[in-house]
Amino acid sequence: MSQRxxxxxxxxxxxxxxVVGGSLAWAQAPTLAEQLxxxxxxxxxxxxxxxxxxxxxxxLLAVQKGGIIGVPYKNTLTRTATFQDxxxxxxxxxxxxxxxxxxxxxxxxxxxxxxxxxxNDERTTKLFKVGDKVYPTKIDVNLDKDQVVMAIVAxxxxxxxxxxxxxxxxxxxxxxxxxxxxxxxxxxxxxxxxLLTISEDTGQQDQSGQxxxxxxxxxxxxxxxxQGGEPxxxxxxxxMDQVQGALGQPQKIVxxxxxxxxxxxxxxxxxxxxxxxxxx
Length: 280
What we know:
By secondary structure, this protein is α+β, with helices and mostly antiparallel strands. It is globular and about 70 Å long. The protein has helices at residues 2-28, 32-39, 97-102, 104-109, 116-120, 156-159, 185-195, 203-226, 240-247, and strands spanning 44-48, 51-56, 61-63, 69-70, 77-84, 87-95, 126-127, 133-142, 147-154, 168-174, 196-198, 252-256, 259-263, 268-272, 275-279. The strands form 4 sheets. Strands 6-5-10-9-8-3-11 form a 7-stranded mixed β-sheet. The protein contains 9 helices and 15 strands. The protein folds into 2 domains: 34-198, no CATH class; 203-279, no CATH class.
């Protein structure tokens, strides 16, 4: 009986070890939504009797293609454009529940447009031009529909819009059926960047530029040491120190909080939580 009991206990312990260990490994793997959240800081807006304003800046994005139509932020309806296969498709009118919640105070003091006609009114709609600056305010990942949906709002101070209206829009990044769940964050960000690229005016880029200058001064000797050596291997899960030990100091470091990107001459290594999650 004692041997049989010991065998049962050992089996249960092994099973729990596999389940718990697998669960912990899974929990440590960042989701696509988490990686996008690290890449794109969301802006926040507030309102008072004078109207809306940006209360917290996010990642500044520059529009790369025309076709996105926005409406004033006070409008409880918004326009949604679809970006697929490199093309911006026509915008549709849709409800924006987030704007409805944020706008309760403002709409109590001012008349807010709430009809589809208002969202289609050429006197209030705004066609974003190439080069216009916007902030992301919300990002949703829908794996079932193979979509990444980003809500954006205009940076009126950047675009020198006076009086400010903080035009908003939704952009659906549509991926091929059944592919988004298998796609790493890097290619998804590249797709987003075809339409909304991170602006070089951001403080994040300024910081990376300073780090780049330091890297160039420190990395020259390391790169010379690697010449003529055996090819180095970069694997998922490696730490930053391990990558630098294999490749030397990067030419550029993009610091996005929990997410960091090391840029080499012919390689881009993305870290999340200090470990490699993507290599391009």
